[in-house]
Specification:
Chain A contains 7 helices and 8 strands, in the order αβββαβαβαβαββαα. Chain A has 199 residues and is α+β, with helices and mostly antiparallel strands. An 8-stranded mixed β-sheet of chain A has the order 1-8-7-4-5-6-2-3, sandwiched between helices. In chain A, α3 crosses α6. The longest helix of chain B has 24 residues. In chain B, α1 crosses α7, α2 packs across α7 and α8 packs parallel to α18. Chain B is α/β, with parallel strands linked by helices. Chain B starts with 5 loop residues before the first helix and ends in a 7-residue tail after the last strand. Chain B is 38% helix and 14% strand. Chain B is globular and about 80 Å long. The chains are: A alpha+beta (199), B alpha/beta (545). Chains A and B meet through α1 and α3 of A and β3 of B.
């Protein structure tokens, strides 16, 4: 209960800040709660291993998911920097949150290129990158409603889920690392007890 | 948007380009190189990386913070998703408010918004440092706030003012000039096939232009000052040694300035042409070369695929994944042919793998006996990689197969028409850097029908289909560019347009982006399914090595 109240207070404070930032930057960030059905596709992780998308998502940890491509020069460097900063701000808690970035240009983004990209953004072991066949990437993009016809039409979307079986928080727009951290804490708090949230 | 009287607009249209040209010239003395380095590489005149922060505090520096990432090399901006990144070449930044681009004599680009008051040097510096626009309004969240001192800022602003969007050489009011480059070692049959397609494409294109009543200059504000231009082809045939090609190309370009080079045909060495295009900032779009030069970091040459170099990657991957370990790989190629480059790449890719790579180099025009001798020592534990042409593959008939692990190059051997003897077919896998015959048939037939209707003899199918595709892609891209005949912009628009392309000929899909210069990324590994004929089956999915 304390955690929930605490979370709400922080949320209120950060929301006030967010309004200010939004007003100044004129960048609307839209949040919604959505349920998605995860497609049973196989992806290739940046370490070269073939993995099941549902299994990667449902490893029990809270998960942050976004879609990127490594030669994207405008949007992705910013969203990746935001995740980097978010991970940094989590501190020791970082190991308990699974960050996942799926390539929307899978033919170009080989595991080697994704590893290089991960290094550039100082991705810790809990932040993983995925590629695969074009069909697998498309299936994932469609399932999470981020497919916009072709890679240059993509928009910044961050998805967050507190635990397997829970709905997703969908954040559209350029969210700041602080806002993201607050969204994360709120989401965990909304789950209930801190013990459940931290599992 | 308030409108000026039509007459005043016309006067401004005539006067302003001259004024801006004068400004650009005036700025030229302020060492544009330093501004360019800052713009493209994010390096300050001191050599230090430029530093920048975004509103939320995220910092960035150097190449990550370079203006070129978003505003692009042309300075004409870009769009990603719903975000429009405006042009920042001086003509757009300093354009008076409330005028239409055509009134100002500035080419239309779909990223331009002239709903702001014109920048001054001071407000532009403020925009770059503080992220507020000409009227003080905050700029988009994507725009970083840069730490740039006055001297470096002057260099950067001088560079932006000097970025011209006037028509590039080779683009006149009525004609667009294009070159196609042919090296002396190019296959004469392919040369004829390619030129037949190009000449017909250009004739058709110009026929369509002649039939369309061209809109009068300034006739419509929505059409800008778009005028259909005639396409003219200049065939640049190189002669002599590769070391002299650069000078020959420079002479051609000086005598016949062209907006871009389309298609083209190489033999075993395309490097001098690739280098020329980079040095002269000339777009060289989709040449027919089996072993392209350069890499993704270059800008001006764009290829359909890495060709045999991609095949080397595909085979290297198979060698790495071979179930039964392979100790020795014997590669066979003819000296000076593209197989030599592929073999070297494969050797480099397998370096440190523990597999011994042995290269058997055959004379450029040697005998069949020589091939037999080169294969004599190959044992059953070896892998064999043959970078050979059809005439050599045919002669394998007299050579016994000594290993069950043989790879051949599809690109060099003739894809499914490779004349591989029956005795070799069970042991041989073919690197196949295009889509499978059954899957590409509709896309390729589209081009073949076009040839048939125009009575173009089919002499080198893939070269001709690729050439037709190259012409179509350039035509399509130019239609999106309206009147902005800027060479860098052509490349940037090709990058954007490719993903939309449905009819991609031999390739399952084509995609590019900044830092991607090979549009088709993968290939299959196939095997002949019958002792004779051209039926092949894929051994697995499309592979992107």
């Amino acid at each position: 209960m304390t955690a929930r109240i605490h979370g709400t207070v922080i949320a209120a404070l950060v929301c006030a800040g967010a309004v200010l930032v939004t007003a100044v930057a004129a960048v609307p960030v839209a949040r919604s709660t959505v349920t998605y059905e995860t497609p049973a596709v196989t992806l290739i992780r940046e370490d070269g291993k073939r993995v099941s998308l549902p299994r990667e998502l449902d490893d029990g940890r809270p998960v942050l998911l976004n879609f990127i491509f490594t030669t994207c020069s405008s949007i992705c460097p910013l969203t990746s920097r935001t995740l980097e900063e978010f991970q940094h701000k989590l501190g020791s808690e970082a190991a308990r949150v699974h960050l996942m970035s799926i390539s929307i240009d899978p033919e170009q983004d080989t595991p080697a290129r994704l590893s290089e990209y991960a290094r550039k953004f100082h991705a810790g072991p809990e932040w993983q990158y995925y590629t695969g066949t074009v069909a697998a990437s498309l299936a994932a993009q469609r399932a999470f409603d981020v497919y916009r016809g072709e890679k240059m039409s993509h928009t910044p979307v961050t998805l967050m889920r507190a635990a397997p079986g829970e709905p997703w928080l969908r954040i559209e727009g350029f969210v700041t690392p602080d806002e993201l951290l607050d969204d994360y804490r709120n989401l965990l708090a909304s789950l209930g007890s801190p013990a459940r949230a931290g599992r | 948007m308030p409108n000026e009287p039509r007459g005043a607009g016309r006067a401004a249209a005539l006067a302003l380009p001259l004024l801006m040209w004068a400004c650009a010239l005036g700025a030229a003395h302020a060492s544009p190189a330093a501004g360019e380095t800052l713009y493209r590489r994010g390096l300050l005149p001191s050599g230090e990386p430029v530093r920048a922060v975004r509103e939320a505090g995220a910092s960035m520096q150097g190449t990550d913070a370079a203006c070129v990432n978003c505003h692009r090399r042309s300075g004409l901006g870009s769009s990603e998703g719903r975000i429009t990144i405006p042009p920042i070449s001086g003509q757009y930044l300093f354009a008076p408010q409330g005028k239409r681009l055509e009134e100002l004599g500035i080419p239309f680009v779909d990223t331009a918004r002239l709903n702001h008051e014109p920048y001054t040097d001071a407000t532009l510096a403020r925009a770059i440092r503080e992220g507020s626009g000409a009227s003080g309004r905050p700029l988009n969240y994507l725009m970083p706030r840069y730490q740039i001192d006055d001297a470096a800022m002057a260099e950067l602003i001088a560079y932006l003012k000097g970025m011209t969007v006037g028509p590039a050489p080779g683009a006149s009011a009525s004609v667009l000039h294009f070159a196609t480059i042919i090296t002396p070692d190019a296959d004469p049959v392919k040369r004829r096939g390619m030129l037949d397609v190009m000449n017909k494409y250009f004739t058709d294109k110009n026929g369509a232009v002649a039939r369309t009543k061209a809109p009068t200059l300034y006739s419509s504000h929505t059409m800008m000052f778009r005028v259909e231009r005639r396409w003219q082809l200049h065939v640049w045939e190189l002669t002599g040694a590769p070391a002299t090609w650069g000078a020959q190309l420079r002479q051609h370009l000086a005598a016949e300035p062209v907006f871009a080079a389309i298609s083209g045909l190489g033999g075993s060495n395309w490097e001098p042409v690739h280098r020329f295009c980079e040095q002269q900032s000339l777009p060289c779009l989709f040449p027919n070369v089996e072993a392209p030069a350069g890499n993704d970091d270059d800008f001006y040459s764009v290829y359909f695929s890495r060709g045999v170099l991609l095949e080397a990657q595909l085979i290297a991957r198979q060698l790495a994944e071979a179930g039964e370990p392979i100790r020795r790989v014997v590669q066979v190629f003819r000296a000076g042919d593209v197989g030599e480059k592929a073999a070297r790449d494969l050797q480099a890719l397998r370096g440190g793998s523990g597999q011994q790579i042995v290269n058997r180099v055959l004379k450029a025009h040697g005998s069949v006996q020589e091939l037999g001798a080169a294969l004599r020592e190959v044992g059953s534990a070896d892998a064999l990689v043959l970078w050979l042409r059809p005439e050599d593959l045919v002669s394998l008939e007299r050579v016994p197969v000594r290993t069950s692990r043989v790879w051949i190059s599809g690109g060099m051997g003739g894809l499914e028409r490779a004349p591989l003897p029956a005795s070799w077919r069970a042991a041989t896998r073919m690197a196949y850097p295009v889509d499978l015959p059954g899957q590409r048939v509709v896309r390729v037939d589209y081009a073949l029908s076009w040839f048939r209707i125009r009575k173009i003899p089919l002499v080198a199918q893939q070269v001709q289909v690729d050439t037709y595709l190259a012409c179509g892609l350039v035509s399509e891209t130019l239609s999106h560019m309206v009147d902005a005949f800027v060479r860098d912009y052509l490349i940037e628009r090709v990058e954007m347009a490719l993903d939309h392309r449905v009819l991609t000929g031999y390739y399952p899909r084509l995609t590019l982006a900044p830092g991607q210069r090979f549009a088709s990324k993968g290939g299959y590994m196939v095997r002949f399914t019958e002792p004779q004929g051209s039926k092949v089956a894929a051994l697995g999915d499309w592979i992107t090595p």
